[in-house]
Structures are given as C-alpha cells and as structure tokens.
Design brief:
17% strand; Rossmann fold; globular; 8-stranded mixed β-sheet; single chain; alpha/beta; 8 strands
C-alpha cells in the first residue's frame, strides 16, 4: 500500500523505538516508548521563539510566541493515553513561527488515571479562559477534542475554525478504512479498542462529545479543515464527518493524504508528502485567523 521510500523510511524509524505491539503494552511501557520515539523526531524550535509554560484556566499549557489578536489552541494526539507538551513541542513551535500567531498547547489529563470527560473539561477550561478569538487545532485524539470543543460551544462563542488532523471521531468500525487498514503501520484497528477502554473503561459511550460523528446536531459549528491519512483505520471518520458537517451547512474542506499513515506529522521534515500536508495545515490556520480578524 505504501511505496514512497521517504514514507517507508519514516515508518521504519518510528517502529525502531515504538513498535506496533507497544500500543497493547502496559500504560507505563507505552508512554516510555512513545516519549523515546518523539525524542527521535523532535526538531529544535525556531531561533528566538518565545516559549513559556503556564496555567491557562487552571490547566497546564505551553504558550509559544507573543500575544496576537488571534491565537491557536493546539490539542495533542496520543489516544488520550500518551503524549503531552513535549511530544508535540516542535509542531506547535513551527506553527507559531510560520503562522505568526500565538499557540497555546494544552496539557489535558490523560487516561486511564483520568477517565472521560476530564479531557474535554480541560480543553473547555482553556477555551473559556482565553479572551481573544482562536483557531482550534488537534491531531488524532486531539482532533476529536477539537471537534468536541466546537460541539460543546454550539450556540455560544465558536472558534474561528477547527483544523482536524487524522481525527478519530467515534466511528463504529463499520467503515471500509477500519477493514482495509486494519493492519496499517503505526496504528491498527485493534489498537483503537485499547485506547477507548482506557478512556471509558467498561462504561457505554453515550456522551455525544465523545463521539462527534454521531452527534445529533452539527449546524452552527466552526468552519472546518479536515485532513486524513489514507493508510489509517481512522481515514473514513474524517470523510464521514465532512459529509455530515456539509449537510448541516458548515463550510468544510477535506484533504486525504495518499500513502501517508497515522502520525505522519513527525515526518514533515523528511517526507515531501508530509511536508506539503503540514504546509496546507498552516495555510488553513492562517486563513481562518485572517477571516476572523
């Protein structure tokens, strides 16, 4: 399914420190391997970029760049179980530098120590504490939280735009991508159940914020830029959500990245495909910010 040598090299380098079976390991081992993998790919911050760790709305955050009229709220991925301020530090730093906007990275509480809805409550607290318009951006689990934030604020103040990067949005596993990409590199369909179990335990998932794809009403939400990885079980969550948003009258742009797997943001410096996708993501952020300004 993947023939691009740059992408294949990225996959091999990722699996050298974070092999596929680690997703099914214990929480501590999973986090240790994930952090080691992120360290391999972490790039230096742009020179001179101002960075500060501080609480926003009582939630630990990392803030990149000076205050700007419009800011970016970034919500990291990691299946709600792994990741944090360091895992996506370089991504946030590069967005702040390229877009010329302050970026607020949210260190929301992780499962299984903190079950749902702790994660969306942290994101809501940051949103409510900010006194300027914002574009909300997230990847993977963070993309679901970005979509959930917009849903939670329906009928109230909305973000200027929602940028959802290879999102998991609560698909029920019936879409083709869950079958076609069941053994995809870097994220397998079987891995998703483990992450959901950590987040919800044995409780049935009834909160629409935990499954944006199945929310009853989507009208009035922020315009969306949604990007999916073609070699990813979650691919069709993105396209199905785009259709539902369009049907609700929400402006949407959907982009599917051929030959790229889940988590490809870390390949943006070594893969032409990933770099172009990251550039499109930054362009969407800038576009939403300019429209809002």
């Amino acid at each position: 399914m993947i023939t691009d040598p740059q992408v294949l090299e990225f996959i091999a380098e990722t699996q050298a420190t974070y092999p596929d079976e680690t997703n099914g390991a214990g929480i501590d081992e999973n986090r240790r391997h994930y952090n080691a993998m992120c360290d391999v790919f972490r790039a230096p911050r742009p020179e001179g970029l101002q960075v500060e760790d501080r609480a926003v709305g009582g939630v630990p955050c990392r803030v990149y760049g000076p205050p700007s009229a419009v800011c970016v709220i970034y919500i990291h991925g990691g299946g709600f179980v792994v990741g944090g301020l360091d895992s996506h530090d370089d991504v946030c730093a590069e967005i702040a530098d390229a877009a010329g906007l302050q970026v607020v990275s949210v260190d929301y509480r992780l499962a299984p120590e903190h079950r749902w809805p702790a994660q969306i409550r942290d994101v809501e607290s940051v949103w409510q504490a900010l006194d300027q318009p914002a574009v909300v951006v997230g990847d993977s689990a963070g993309a679901m939280l970005a979509a959930s934030l917009c849903l939670s604020q329906r009928g109230q103040r909305q973000p200027l735009g929602q940028v959802l990067i290879y999102p998991g949005l609560g698909g029920d596993g019936s879409a083709a991508s869950y079958r076609d990409n069941a053994e995809a590199p870097l994220l397998r369909t079987a891995d998703l159940g483990g992450y959901q179990g950590a987040l919800h335990g044995d409780d049935p998932v009834t909160d629409p914020l935990a499954r944006p794809l199945h929310a009853a009403e989507l009208d009035g939400l922020s315009p969306a830029f949604i990007v999916s990885a073609d070699i990813d079980p979650l691919r069709d969550d993105a396209s199905e959500y785009a259709v539902r948003l369009q049907q609700a009258g929400v402006r949407v742009q959907l982009r599917n990245e051929a030959q790229l797997p889940h988590g490809y943001l870390r390949a943006r410096r070594t893969s032409d495909r990933a770099r172009l996708s990251f550039q499109a993501i930054i362009a969407a952020i800038i576009r939403f910010a300019n429209e809002g300004a």
